[in-house]
Amino acid sequence: MPVFLKLTQANAVFRSPEKAREHMAKRSIRPSSYGPPSLLRRDVSVSVDHAQGWPVYTLTPKTGRVVGGAVYLHGGGWVNEIALQHWQLAAQIAAEAKVAVTVPIYPLVPFGTAEEVIRKVVELVLNSVALYGETTLGGDSAGGEIALSAAVLLRDEHEMVLPQTVLIAPALDLSLKNPQIDVVLRTDPWLGREGTQVFIEQWRGERSVEDPLVSPLNAELSGIGPLTIFCGTRDMVHPDTRLLVDKASRADVVVEFHEGDGLVHVYPLTPTPEGRAARKIIVERFGTATERP
After folding, report:
1. Which residues have CB under 8 Å from 196's CB, separation 6+?
2. Whose CA is closest to 149, among 75, 257, 242, 221?
3. Neighbours of 248 (CB within 10 A)
4. pLDDT tens digits for 124-170?
């Protein structure tokens, strides 16, 4: 994977402010397709609702009873649209965990902001609870930031503790001030600081980059419910992920950390043996939702 990512210059827009601005402008003019692939798993049904103002997809298993809900937030640096790997993971969760998976197509920068998106995600979780019962929450990379911030808001504003929040290589402190980031970036073939900061400036909106809604590593973590976290050591977000694990543990949060030695950003989404093993665990954790009484 590192060799492939280097050859394809996967981190170009994340390393260069100029390329980041060009990429954001290009995506603004010609948005990427976001619909689920036509050859998604046959054992999953797909529906879409536009009532919330965004396309919000729901994936449900075709066989067996739905025993709970899940809300999954895709990554992409707040600028890239949902990808095939996200759809495949969401479908696997729906089919194998027997839960209804809500997948929102949230607005990206320069149009979407943390405040707008995270509060709408909170509404989607509440709606999932009303429809399907116990609901888990998760996301990867930028989606992991959204998921953790939403879990904090659910605790603070709705007194709701989720049964499980799954974070895959989450963005946690958008100040990117951790000095260990520079060390990891020497071997990270996927991400970069300077271009990422361009997207962060748009994403934070009116809020400070230090605001816990934007940088959930700064939030009080006690009482948010169990966390399952995946992150490779060749990942720019790894230093902050270690801080999250330590901080959550000190706050008596149950934390299950899967640290991928030598693995790249969002390794559970990669077509590798480590990725397949991680996805099996992810499905199990999303399946912790229980049937509504």
Report:
1. 14, 20, 77, 176, 236
2. 221
3. 21
4. 999 999 999 999 999 999 999 999 999 999 999 999 999 999 999 99
pLDDT band at 12; cut points 50, 70, 90: confident
Integer Cα distance of 43 and 96 in angstroms: 10
CB of 259 closer than 8 Å to CB of 252: no
Which residue, chain included where needed, has tokens 């999954």?
Answer: 72
> Which two three-digit tokens encode residue 182?
């520079």
pTM: 0.95
Residue 70 contacts by C-beta under 8 Å, 6 or more apart in sequence? Answer: 93, 94, 97, 99, 100, 101, 102, 128, 135, 136, 137, 138, 286, 289
Q: The sheet that has 227-234: what strands, in order across it?
A: 44-49, 56-61, 100-104, 69-73, 135-140, 165-168, 227-234, 255-264
pLDDT in tens, 195-242: 999 999 999 999 999 999 999 999 999 999 999 999 999 999 999 999
pLDDT for residue 5: 62
**Looking at domain 2-286, which CATH architecture does it have?**
3-Layer(aba) Sandwich (3.40)
Q: Where do the structural domains in the chain lie, given as residue ranges?
A: 2-286
| Contact criterion met (CB below 8 Å) for 107 and 173 | no
CA distance 269 to 138: 13
The Cα–Cα gap between 173 and 194 comes to 15
How, if at all, do strands 56-61 and 165-168 pair? Answer: unpaired
